[in-house]
Amino acid sequence: MSQKQPLWYKNAVFYQVNVRAFFDSNQDGHGDLPGLTQKLDYIQNLGIDCLWIMPFYPSPLKDDGYDISDFYNIEAKYGTLDQFRTLIQAAHKRGIRIIIDMIMNHTSDQHDWFQQARADRNSPYRDFYVWSDTKDKYKEARIIFLDTEESNWSWDDLAQQYYWHRFYASQPDLNYDNPKVRETMLDVMRFWLKLGIDGFRADAIPYLFEREGTNCENLPETHAYLKEIRSMIDHEYPNCILLAEANQWPQKVREYFGDGDEFHMGFHFPVMPRIFMSLKKGDRTSLQWIVDQTPPIPENCQWCIFLRNHDELTLEMVTEGDRQWMWQEYAPDPRMKINLGIRRRLAPLLDNDPVKIRLINALLFSLPGAPIIYYGDEIGMGDNILLFDRNGVRTPMQWDQSLNAGFSQTTPEKLYAPIITQAPFDPEHVNVTDQLKNPDSLLNFTQRLVKIRKQNSTFGSGNLEWCNIADLAILAFKRNYHNETIVVINNLSDGVKEVRLKEPGLSGIPTDLISLQSRPDFKNGNIQLVLDPYQFIWLKYEKLDD
Ligand code: NOJ
Questions:
Q1: Cα separations (Å) of 65 from 76, 88, 400?
Q2: How far apart are CA 452 and CA 267, in angstroms?
Q3: Phi, psi at residue 51, to the nearest 5°?
């Protein structure tokens, strides 16, 4: 990809895709790399700049691939390294970059390193993991998979010791105090960078090191090592990026940007539940609060924002009261809950209401940060709460109304997961082909948002300034960049609202970015309008040169 755009990620739109779920090219019931390659035209048509591909490494799939048993290969069901090379080339040819998941914190217990480590105390791999004779160490570290794990220590009979794990017991943590581990993981990253990828979504990075008397998260040692990785990338693969998965408060995630010398990007976890909260309450307060809590980041860094992903809608970063409220409002059936979150997709969470779904996407595309779309959400796919763990939000992509929603030609029993069959989320109602034909579809709307967003780098690079409006149901802000201001006004409520805004700093006649109409009635920042329930408007003012 072009070396001329070092800050390409600041204005990029991302698409998160699960290879297994996207398209099955060889009729074995699992999506695969050639299948994803075949569907690149669709992704290009949507306007996507960068794909985030979820783990495709060999894995016993106890955590859907976040449990890697070989860092240097591809899970046979998904394809081969050659097919991955082909995918990268085909994507780059279309101007689409690719970042892949890098799971640094742990391996699968099936990984050969762990097997050797447990079998022999003198194996060089013993010290690749964290062992103890008792369960007494690191007591202040919280348990993340609360529904299944009782402790971060598990006993291994063969090893005759406990081993440390922050996630499932089948995912032993690597020991980053061991220089060999640090070196090896750098080499793993080099291996994939050399194949031509454009960076990594780095999984679970707060937990790399453990220290007694701390909660074992965000430790200085962790930051020091991550800076080493960044330095390797800058020297050996400039233009490639690191995206941090740190489910933490903004002040803590801020540390992962360093002085612009650690991560290029970081997910903004706490903003996400507050978007849902503000929308359901018809009150901007919590969303505005978290944006205000977000510290500035270095010029060469960018937040990544999202509405949903492959995990539960996490409620780790809200108060206990807000968590209970979110569960009550968004997870009325107890089966919708998991750990500290909600295992549902975007469209069902919003009652499949097109107006609300459009508004929430408009928020995603106008708030600071680069937006990520979770595969299937651009067509409003549903979920299946009967499936195990978080699998209910990872069902096959719905391409058309044919057999298996066009995902695979195999018999339905052979699919890795069943297609969503319940109306209104079944393929008859939700599929790509029909939505491509319908100008009013969610897919076409999303495509339009992506296009507008990319034509206006103010969304990616501008600052945010709140507009002064007393009614808490109205969330209005300005995004300013160079000589341009985009005024964004959202009605978060189910009522009709009259909005009056005077922004004397703005001059000229704005353009409504969605309808592309010029709006002389809003000249010089005098805005007076009526918004329908959940309606939004984006107005672009350009300062003319004096
Ligand atoms: C975060 C990933 O998003 C999640 O799916 C996984 O279970 C954990 N990290 C452990 O790797």
A1: 12, 20, 27
A2: 22
A3: -95, 140
Q: Which of 32, 245, 255, 283 is catalytic?
A: 245
Residue 245: active-site member:
yes
Q: d(Cα 519, Cα 513) in Å, to the nearest integer?
A: 10
Give the residues across from 342 on adjacent strands: 313, 337
pLDDT tens digits along 312-359: 999 999 999 999 999 999 999 999 999 999 999 999 999 999 999 999
Q: Which residue is associated with the tokens 């919003």?
A: 350
Helices 271-281 and 285-293 pack at an angle, to 10 degrees, of 160
The distance in angstroms from the start CA to the end CA of the chain is: 39
Nearest CA to ligand 1 atom 2: 203
Q: Catalytic annotation on 236? A: no
Minimum CA distance residue for ligand 1 atom 3 = 311
The two tokens of residue 490 are: 């959202």
Select which of 32, 63, 75, 203 is catalytic: 203
Give 368-412 as a DSSP string.
SSEEEEETTTTTT----TTSSTTGGG-PPP---SSGGGGS-SS-G
Whole-number pLDDT of residue 543: 83
Q: Is 374 in the pocket of ligand 1 (CB under 6 A)?
A: no
Between CA 403 and CA 407 the distance in angstroms is 8
What pLDDT digit, counting tens, does each position of 204-229 carry? 999 999 999 999 999 999 999 999 99
C-alpha 318 – ligand 1 centre gap (Å):
19
Q: Please report the atom of ligand 1 found closest to the CA of residue 311.
A: 5
Determine if ligand 1 sits within 6 Å of the CB of residue 63: yes
Average of pLDDT values for 466-485?
97
Atom of ligand 1 nearest to the CA of 66: 11
Q: Name the CA radius of gyration of the chain, rounded.
A: 24
145 CB under 6 A from ligand 1? no
